């Protein structure tokens, strides 16, 4: 929690990045490159789905797993990945995860059937689930809490956004050449990250006391997250009230209960239950779910609208989204200073104010909407919203957390992002399909129906973040 006194003190701090040496900058750049790699790959492969389907003869239901398998692996293993980073060692885990990512990406690029591509994407998602919390935890323990860490997190956010933006453009260009290049390009980038981490990141130091593994707890929570994400992804096709969907949710609840019982009796638990009673961390994870859930749903609708209804090429669509990424890259490095002045809670509120205005703007689309007057304002507003909300969530989630548990905190936050994206996208897809003869038809009505859900969730989060920010201000003045 950031009090008014803490906020004032942080605002008075000098730009401590001026004292960063070349090695520290290089370390931050390498760690940010791992985030850049994940974002780049996700954006590129998303654009390459249609040609993958055409070349490998995959059905529509099968090819959607090229995207969903990554989400399943990422969301399912994040909590385990975060804790393993603290137990095994962040540097070691990051090196292993990036290596596996590179191998899986290479396999996907040379695959001759859809099953191999889907399996490769799942393994890439699992790898990202271990590399993301490990990389973020290294940043959190390398840079001291306060203005310095806020600036580092802001740069980290900017790199992720830049990777996603460049991924859209690169995906459009590479897809014109051949979809396999969207899998092959990340391989040399991953190798560069491996070399950089090996040289710049110091070796892990762990006491013997930390080398105790809660295998039953790890199994139960990982199985629970895998089942939850799988059930959410499959719900639109299976039906939200079908036996399979309801059984999946019931199984998730049973596994969570089993996990809680295991953690209460284990001497060295995977996750201390009181760790999840941290309102700042849980609140940041819920905001993270709303951030990626609303944005990924918007991107899904926007891609359909521009490509299926307006006839834009993948490259044209990528260029249409590009202003958003450029603005994020420009604003994000300065977000650390804004947190020092206003605190993470007001940053998240400001972010969702911009998100809500962006989604309201996109609701104006019609059969021949002008890009500059209807779509570009949405992209610019999201470009403002991302760096404010992302940086605010990262800082709030990890503030006050002991260094030994920074990986776990990062895992909880990242789980919020991935599960939120899977859940809301499934809800939006089902809403779009309602009344459209069983499929999410490419009609203005379906786009508007989906955007009503996106905007509604954004408004709810806007109100919630405002209430929390106001309460925090009242407590600080008492």
UniProtKB/TrEMBL annotation:
Keywords tagged on the record? Cell membrane, Membrane, Transmembrane, Transmembrane helix, Transport
Question: Which Gene3D superfamilies does the UniProt entry name for this protein?
Answer: MFS general substrate transporter like domains (1.20.1250.20), Multidrug resistance protein D (1.20.1720.10)
One Pfam family name is MFS_1
Mind telling me which InterPro entries this protein's record contains? MFS, MFS_dom, MFS_trans_sf, Sugar_transporter_CS
**Major facilitator superfamily (MFS) profile domain residues:** 27-473
Annotated SUPFAM superfamilies: MFS general substrate transporter (SSF103473)
Q: Do the record's keywords include Transmembrane? A: yes
Signal sequence region: none
Q: Where in the cell is it found?
A: Cell membrane
Q: Which top-level group of life is the source organism from? A: Bacteria
How does this protein sit in the membrane? Multi-pass membrane protein
Transmembrane stretches, by residue range? 24-50, 62-81, 93-111, 117-141, 153-175, 181-201, 213-233, 245-263, 275-298, 318-339, 346-365, 371-395, 407-430, 450-470
Keyword flag DNA-binding: no
Which PANTHER family does the entry mention? BLR6921 PROTEIN (PTHR42718:SF46), MAJOR FACILITATOR SUPERFAMILY MULTIDRUG TRANSPORTER MFSC (PTHR42718)
What is the protein name given in its UniProt record? Answer: MFS transporter
Species this chain originates from: Lentzea rhizosphaerae
């Amino acid at each position: 929690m950031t009090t008014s006194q803490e906020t004032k003190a942080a605002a008075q701090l000098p730009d401590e990045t001026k004292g960063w040496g070349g090695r520290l900058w290089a370390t931050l750049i390498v760690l940010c490159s791992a985030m850049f790699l994940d974002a780049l790959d996700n954006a590129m492969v998303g654009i390459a789905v249609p040609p993958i389907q055409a070349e490998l003869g995959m059905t529509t239901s099968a090819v959607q797993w090229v995207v969903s398998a990554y989400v399943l692996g990422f969301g399912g293993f994040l909590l385990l990945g975060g804790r393993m980073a603290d137990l095994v060692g962040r540097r070691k885990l990051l090196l292993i995860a990036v290596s596996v990512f590179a191998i899986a990406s290479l396999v996907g690029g040379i695959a001759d059937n859809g099953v191999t591509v889907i399996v490769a994407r799942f393994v890439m998602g699992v790898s990202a689930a271990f590399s993301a919390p490990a990389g973020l935890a290294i940043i959190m323990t390398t840079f001291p809490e306060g203005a310095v860490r806020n600036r580092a997190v802001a740069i980290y956010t900017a790199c992720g956004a830049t990777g996603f933006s460049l991924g859209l453009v690169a995906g459009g260009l590479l897809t014109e050449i051949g979809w396999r290049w969207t899998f092959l390009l990340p391989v040399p980038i991953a190798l560069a990250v491996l070399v950089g981490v090996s040289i710049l990141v110091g070796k892990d130091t762990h006491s013997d006391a930390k080398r105790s593994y809660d295998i039953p707890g790890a199994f139960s929570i990982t199985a629970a997250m895998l089942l939850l994400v799988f059930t959410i992804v499959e719900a639109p096709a299976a039906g939200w009230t079908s036996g399979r969907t309801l059984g999946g949710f019931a199984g998730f609840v049973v596994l969570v209960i089993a996990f809680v019982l295991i953690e209460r009796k284990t001497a060295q638990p995977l996750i201390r239950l009181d760790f999840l009673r941290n309102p700042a961390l849980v609140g940041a994870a819920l905001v993270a779910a709303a951030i990626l859930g609303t944005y990924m749903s918007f991107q899904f609708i926007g891609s359909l609208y521009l490509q299926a209804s307006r006839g834009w090429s993948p490259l044209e669509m990528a260029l249409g989204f590009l202003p958003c990424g450029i603005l994020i890259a420009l604003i994000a490095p300065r977000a650390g200073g804004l947190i020092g002045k206003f605190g993470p809670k007001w940053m998240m509120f400001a972010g969702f104010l911009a998100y809500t205005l962006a989604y309201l703007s996109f609701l104006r689309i019609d059969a021949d909407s002008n890009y500059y007057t209807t779509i570009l304002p949405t992209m610019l507003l999201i470009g403002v919203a991302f760096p404010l909300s992302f940086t605010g969530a990262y800082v709030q989630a990890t503030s006050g957390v002991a260094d030994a548990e920074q990986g776990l905190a990062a895992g909880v936050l990242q789980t919020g992002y991935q599960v939120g994206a899977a859940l809301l996208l499934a809800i939006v897809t089902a809403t779009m399909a309602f009344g459209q003869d069983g499929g999410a038809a490419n009609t203005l009505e379906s786009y508007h129906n989906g955007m009503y859900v996106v905007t509604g969730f954004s408004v709810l989060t806007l109100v919630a973040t405002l209430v929390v920010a106001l309460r925090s201000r009242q407590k600080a003045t008492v």
